[in-house]
Every structure is written in C-alpha cells, then in structure tokens.
Amino acid sequence: MMLIVQRRLLFLLFFLIKLTECNRKNRRYKELRRPEPYDVFDSDYLPSDVQVATYLYKGITKRFYYQSTVSNSTLSVTISTCTGPVEWLFETHERRLAVKNSDKHTRTHNLKVSTGMSTSYFPAVKGLYMLQLLAQEMDTYVHIYVSTEEGGPKTIQSARLQKIKIIQRQRRKGVTLRWRPSLVDPQSTTYCAVVHDQKTYGSLCAAQADKFGILPPVSRPVAASQTVISWQPSTQNHSTRTDDTFPIIGCVGRSTQYTTLNLKQGKNYYFQVFATDGQNNFTYPYGSASLIFDGRVKPIRLKNGISAYANLKKYDGKVVFRYKIPKNPGKQLKVIIIPCGSVVYVEVLKKGSVIVAKRNVLNYEKITIDSPTESSRYYIKVFAVERAELDKSAGIEILASTKQLSKALLPPMPHTTSLNEYKPLRTCDSVTIGWIPVPGRAVSHYCISAREGELEQVNSMACPAKNGKIMKADDYVVKYCKDIAQSDKSVITENVKYLKAGSSYIVQVTVKKPRGRIISYDLLQVRTLPKCRKVSK
C-alpha cells in the first residue's frame, strides 16, 4: 500500500512540474509575441548609411538635419512608414532659405508622400540638408536611411535579383519559402517572412503594426536586441509557425527558409521576405511571391514499360502514380518499385479500393497483379517512412508494365542485395567482398568501384536505377567491370585491390543484364589495414 501511495505522489509531482513548465513557456511566448517599441533616434542630426527610427504624431512637423561631406555625387533617402502616409521634404539649407518666401506652389512641388517604403535620389553637394516629416492621417513610426552609396543602397539593388521559391507541403497543408542569402553582408543579414491572404506590405514595420498595433515611445532606452526585428522566438534553425491570424510573421535569423502550415485549399496567399543588414540596421523588402494553395497530391502518369522517377523531398514524402491498363494487356500487371535514399511504404488502389495492402519497401520490390482489365486505372501510393528527415536526393523510381519482364529491361535482384566483407582477408591495400548473384543463367555485367570516404557522408540508398551509379566518376579510386556467367556458386567473391593503407572506402557493386538497366547492390563500408604485413621468405 505504501508503495502505491509513493508512486501516486511521484506521478502527481511530475504532472505539476510539467504543468508549471508549460505555463512558463506559454507566458514567455506571449511576452515575446508583441514587439517592443522602436529605439527612437534622439539626435537632430542624421548619420550616413545607418537606419534610424523616429515617431511622428499626427499633424506635428518634425525636422532632422544632415551634414553632407561629398559633392558631385548622389544622395538617396529611404523613408519607411509603419501605419500611415508621411509627407516629407529633403533639401539643402540654402535652398530652404531661398524658397522660404516663394509662393506655396513652388514649395509644395518638392513635397513627397510615402506609404510603406520609398527611396528618392538627390544630387549631393557639400553642406547642410534638412529633412522635414509630417504624419498626415495618424501617429506612426518612421525609419530613415540616408545613403551615400552610388546608385542608392546596394542591398536594394541586389534584392531586385532575388526570387522566392515556394515548395508545397502536403503534410499539414503548408508551404516552405526558400531564398538565397543576400549578396551584401550575408553574414550579418537576418530575415523575416510575412504571410497574408489578402494583401502585401510596403515595409516590415507596416506588417507588424497591422498585427500588433503600435506602441508609442517610452522614456526608458530599448536595447537593439529588443527592437521589433528580433522579437520573434525561433524554434530551430528555421522558424515554423501555425498561427493562422494574418498577417503571419516569422523571423528566422540568418536562415534562408521559412515554413507556414495549415493553409486552406484553393485560397490565394501572398508571401514576402524582409531582410535586415546588421551592419547598418537597414530593413528592406527582399523578395515576394504569391500562390493559390493546392494541397492535393497530383498523380504522376506512368506509361507502359517506361519508368518514372519522382523526388520524395520535392513531394514532401508522398507521391501518387497513376497507370492506365493499355489494350490487349495480357495476364499480369507487374509493378517494380525502387526507392532511392529512403525506405517507403507502398500500396496499390483501384477505384478507391486497396488491392495491394501497404507494405514496407527497402530497396527493390516487384508487385504482380493478376488479370488486369483494359482501360482500368491503378493508383500506386508511395509514402516515405521518415518524411521529416528526407534527404534532398531521396526519390522513388517506378515501372509498370503488362509486358514480359525481359522487355522491361530491369534485372531481377536476389532476395538480399547487401555486400559482405571477409575481414580476415583484409590487407593494407585490398579488401575481399562477396555478394549473391542475380537469378538466372544469363551472363550478367558487374561493375565494382570504390572511393575514399565514410558511408554516413553518402546516402546508402542513393538512386542507382535513376542514373546507374551513386558516386561520381571523378570520385572513383578503383573501378572495373567484368561479365560473370551464373554458375552453381551461391556467392560471388571479388578482391578489390590498389587501395591505400589505413584508409576508409565505400564499395559499390552494380549489375546489368544484356540490353538491360543498371541496378546497384547496397553500399559497403570497408577499411584497409594500417600497415602492410611482412611476407616471410
């Protein structure tokens, strides 16, 4: 009885600890979700090539000054607003005095109105400039960036070349955005992604103001690490958000990808990426894209006797192939499945009914379906077992045929495709391996190759059926081929020579029958002896 009471108390204590941790995490998350106020610039004189922030109250004009030390060049002024349009004017002090008593039309002609982010260019002269700002409709934060770079900020110029790649995720109905690192200050540039289902934003602070509202400046100083740019907590090396309150905002640090989930079928979405250069605090639009989300898995059409390949990473680990039985189909439909870089589950359906139950396929599988009927459609569903850990080279190759297998040009493989090393026969410059030959009496063409390296650095199931080889030709240390006729031997052995002492190698064996395709056995990790044995005379 005492033991039972102790167990219950321990369970209760464990539950309370977990509940406390959960509440603490939720509280921390809510505190970080809302951005801190911007660190408002407290000087009247603007710096060169550094972005600063100020706060404008509606209807109250604010002035800054800029001392130019260059001439015969160009100055650019970038104004980014957060919640409303801003009227602004940038001119030399001398010109301001010259037009002070001019008519109103002359002065109004030089006024600019910015909503979002805009950049204007001015001829540079040595002397004092004045920047005048006025919030027209509501209070707003404004970011100011005066650049002396020829042609304007290089970050904006390079961002025009960027494209956002969208990868749809069938799993959890999401998409992943990917982009290339900035060409300007890549090591100090961080990124934020913004998702909306109705509109785009001219600036990052406009998106954040739309989501959270704005907080007026406070008297206490705000550290740079607590500004609006870094408020978003990151889960791993890239942020994944499931919050469906638009806009969805995720800041991912220096990572160049972002995943958003739980999108709705057939709905249009707008995706934007904003970058911040840590060298000068300049935040600018980095790229944008839009998409009508379609989370359905579109089948890949199979032609009779012709193999088709699909990248599992691209399809988020789930692929569907469709095969239509041709005229005069014969007695059997044969489906050959070759996974590449991932163990998969496979099932076959006809008219929505499962006719081949889900099965696990490691590296080679042949499915036979009896009495196929003309024009009937079969759907072959392939699921990666570890969908969250797919390598970019992971794929699946499938061939469906009502012809004889000999015409399908794929050699039948033995029940096991693993290679075996005979370790007692190791030397400093060779290893001895063995494998089970392919079935049949015909002569088969085997190729043996080796390269230096560790097996974990190379996918052990890279796609041999796709290109007939796993390793690039330049990587081979040893490669040779030979024709071997099937005999009564149950195992073929081979001594792989000309290796270096004390080195690790990856060995590959491929097989090809006459007029057939190349298929690989599993890769094998071997290691030569560190020293050569002395041969006694």
TrEMBL record:
Record-linked SUPFAM superfamilies: Fibronectin type III (SSF49265)
Superkingdom as given in the UniProt entry: Eukaryota
Transmembrane segments: none
InterPro entries reported in the protein's UniProt record: FN3_sf, NDNF, NDNF_C, NDNF_Fn(III)_1
GO cellular component: extracellular region
Compartment list: Secreted
Ranges of residues in domain Neuron-derived neurotrophic factor first Fn(III): 175-287
Keywords carried by this UniProt record: Glycoprotein, Repeat, Secreted, Signal
Domain Protein NDNF C-terminal: 360-532
Signal peptide (UniProt feature, chain positions): 1-22
UniProt entry tagged with the keyword Ribosomal protein: no
Name this polypeptide is given: Protein NDNF
